[in-house]
Every structure is written in C-alpha cells, then in structure tokens.
Amino acid sequence: MTTPHADGGPVAPLAIAAQRGNSTVLRIVLGAQLRRLREQRGIRLEEAGYAIRASHSKVSRMELGRVGFRLRDVADLLTLYGVTDDADREPLLSLVDRANLAGWWHNYSDVLPAWFETYVSLEEAATGIRNYEVQFVPGLLQSEGYARAVVQLGFPSATPAEVDRRVRLRLARQRLLHRPDPPRLWAVLDEAVLRRPLGGVEAMCEQIDHILEALELPNVTVQIVPFSVGGHAAAGGPFSILRFSQPDLPDVVYMEQLTSAVYLEKRDDVDRYLEVMERLCIEAEPATRTREILLGIREGFRSRSTAP
Q: CATH for 16-99?
C-alpha cells in the first residue's frame, strides 16, 4: 500500500521489514513517513503542531521517532497532509499501537538508562553490527563472569542484586545472535582487550572460551588488532555501527560515554566511521587467525595461573 505525493503520485511503500521491527524502529519509520508527507505538502512544523493541539517541537520529536504516538494525532496529521483514502491511511495508522509497545528490555528499566535503552532497541532491530573496542570485550560477546567484573568496575557501589540485574540484561541481549534471523556481528578488538585480566585469570580464560564458542556461529566474525600495529585509524576510541534493512533507517554510529551516549546518523559522519572501520579491518590480523591468537592468549593466562 502506498501513500500519495502532494501531486497525486505514489511514494515508496512502508517497508515490509518494518512489520518485524521493534517499537523504536517502528516509531522512526512512522515518523519518517509523516515528515515526508508534511514536506511534500509544504506544511510547516508550526502548522502541523496546531492541527494536533501541540507545539512544533513535539511534531519534530514525533518525526524523529523520539516520542510515542497517539492514534488521534496521527489521524489528524494524515488529514492535514491530504491522506484521506482509508486504504492509504490504514498502513500508517496500524503502526501506531505497535510503535508504542514496550520491548523485552523495558523489564530492566530499573538498571537501563534511557540513553542506552535506545541502543538496545536499535541493536535488536539491526541486520548488521560492527564494533571496535579498545578496553572491554563487546557486550554481545561477554561471558557471565567477565560481564560481572565489568559491571562491578563501572558500578562499584551497586548492591549484589543490582549487579545481578545488570549482568542478566547483558546476557539477555546476546539472545539475538542465536535467533532464526540473527544480525551479522563483526567485532574488531584491540589486543589490550584480551590481555587485560579483568576479573582475574580464570574469568579471562572463561571469556576467551566464550568468544571461541561464538566464533562457531556463522554470523559472528572477530578480528584482533595486535600491539605491533602501533597507532591506528581508531585513535578516538571505541564505537559501534548499526545497519538496518529498513530504507527509512540510516546507519547509526554509537559512542558510549560514562553517563550518556552519542548517536551519529548524518551521512558524512557515518561514512567517516565506516572508512575507519574498514581500515581497522585491514590493519587487524585476518579473521582466519583469530582462533589461533585467542588460544595463545588463553595459554598465556593459564601458564601464569600455574606458575609457582
């Protein structure tokens, strides 16, 4: 089903993939459709806000998918934008309820800050996830013991119950790698990530074994940037790039900070990080050597633990 141009011609149909998307993705898709319709009609944000008895800033947030939708507001906007045929309105209106549904991660709202909730929901919807890490193993590849050590390092005053909740959340995210339609995960790790004995020697051996098991999955690739490379392309720090099948969703670059995160989606910004990621993959050891390198590092940890 299509929605009309201002001149009566069709625009691209709602992405079929959106039918399988989570609530965050559906909000972004619906918001993008509403923005396109408004711009095609030459209607200003202020006019759209007046039509739904709201401010122009609320309409802007709706178009960016950053707030929930009310069925009445979407219906009124469609009328304003000239979408009056029921057959054209229904695909958009049918998204409203699904776009407001809570994802599984909302069960962890007590330990999930809003700035990271967005990442978890986008991660769940991504078809491709590329990580570069310089200090920690990526969350999607962390073993339970290693995840616990990371949480305790980041939240030293957390109660045991809170630590358990945060660890369970991290492990729950990993289920997406095993689902029938998993995303492609490609992680590039600085050698320091694997050499630093976070949680102790046993925890690191367990962590390396966990990565080795993950490498058995056809959708997981890991490369290691050795110390011998010296300085390299990603001197600015760790980042992730998320890719989606929905045409209304651009690639997103995610960079985590101590108490917040940065999301980049402008084409020039994303292209810059894609270039850096490609150079990292060239500078890193080939993926065919990852297993050998991991086994060597694990052996070094085990030798250390048995040394007199």
A: 1.10.260.40
